[in-house]
Every structure is written in structure tokens, then in C-alpha cells.
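Let's practice the habit of predicting before peeking. Look at the sequence and jot down your guess about where helices and strands might fall. Then scroll down.
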Amino acid sequence: MKKKRSTRFDFSLILPTYHEEGHFVQSVRTIESVLSDVGFRWQIIFVDDASTDSTPELIRHELKIHKNWKALFHKKNMGRGRTVMDGIRASRATVAGYIDIDLEVSPVYIPQIVRIIMNDDADVVIGTRVYRTNIHSIIREIASVGYRYLSDKMVGTNKMDTESGYKFFNRKKILPVLTKTRHAHWFWDTEIMVFARAANLRIREVPVLFLRRIDKRSTVNLIPDTIDYMQSLFGLWRRLITKQGEVREN
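Done guessing? Here is the structure:
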């Protein structure tokens, strides 16, 4: 009797997608090339956030080729934070991580980061962005550095690059932390790191080169997203202050 092949994975790479048709195929092939000979079992989990272009069809094509890959399709747009959480919960791997599929940060750092967690040297690893400063990235770089200092002062992020879309987790340890987050969009990245620190998870930062793509339109809208960040940051600060007061009273 032929032994059934195990479908247990060491690592699930979650790829949140939203209108990615312009670079989807090339990005997936690049990721495959990097992970093709890493020495551990891996899969990709796509989580599409209600794309109206050809992205869902491209994902379904990949699933026909790669039987062990997975996909989730949101019926309505729910936000990047929700897509990542859904992907983590759908994973059954030891390590679950996500990157932005536009590959403004190369996937070449993934094997090193995954091994850090698999070797039990950290519970969470962030790819901390190092910018190659140019006219296209200078505004984002300034905003990122400013946000690191402000968020640290208000909610204690230890000046981490919380907004980096390059994070990897010991899945078992991060699952309880997911339940503490409330924001379904970009601010989720700040929340998950604040609550990971509060849970005493071991967090490590690995420098990664960020190269701004000028051939695609960013899904980040600087002014409205900045306003949302400031409102959300203040809301999280109030939530933490309230909880600290409750702890002191008890």
C-alpha cells in the first residue's frame, strides 16, 4: 500500500492580493525561485481582498499547478490586516509569514528569517526596511521614521518598523495575539506588534532593502491613510491607558 504523502508544512507564505495583475506572475515566479531549494517544506496561501481585475483568475491558475497551495477569496474588500489574519489562521505550518507581492522588498531574505524562527531563536521577525533614498521614496522614508518615533512614544513599539509588510511568526504563539487586534486595515501592523510585545514574544529585526517601484500605483493613500493612522494610534493609546488603569485598580 502506497504511503500517503504528508501535507504538513514548515512554512506558509501568505500573499495578500488586491489588483495585482500587472506583476502577479513575475512575483510568484521570483518567490518560487528563491524558495525552490530551501530545505524545508513550504506553501503559498493567497488571500485576495475582492480584486475586480484578473488577480482571482491568476490565483486559481496557480492552484491548478500547485496542489498544496491554498487561496481564500473575500467577497468584499476587508483590508490588509484582515487578509493577513485570515491567512495565518488558514495555515497549519510551524511558521507563517507575509510579504507584499509587489516585491518592493525582495523575497531573498525569507529563508534566513524562517530559519530563525524554526531554530527557536525568535517568535516574531520583522524585515526592517532600509531605504535606498531617491525622489520616489523620500516622502515614505520620512513618514516611516517619524511614525516609528511617534508610535514608540504613544504605545511603546520600541521604534520598530511596525509598518513593514514583511513579518514572520511562530504561528502557534501568534494565534492568541490575533484576537487582541481590532483594526482590519493598515494599522493592524502596529497593533500586532504592540500586543506581541505585551505577550512577551521574542521579537527580532532583520534589515531588508526597500526599493520603491515606480511602475505601479501604491495602494497606500498618504493623506487619508495618515489621518486614519493618527486616529487609530490615539485610539490604541487610550485603550492601553484604560487597561493599565483597570490593572492598577485590581
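How did you do? The CA atoms of residues 7 and 138 lie 44 Å apart.
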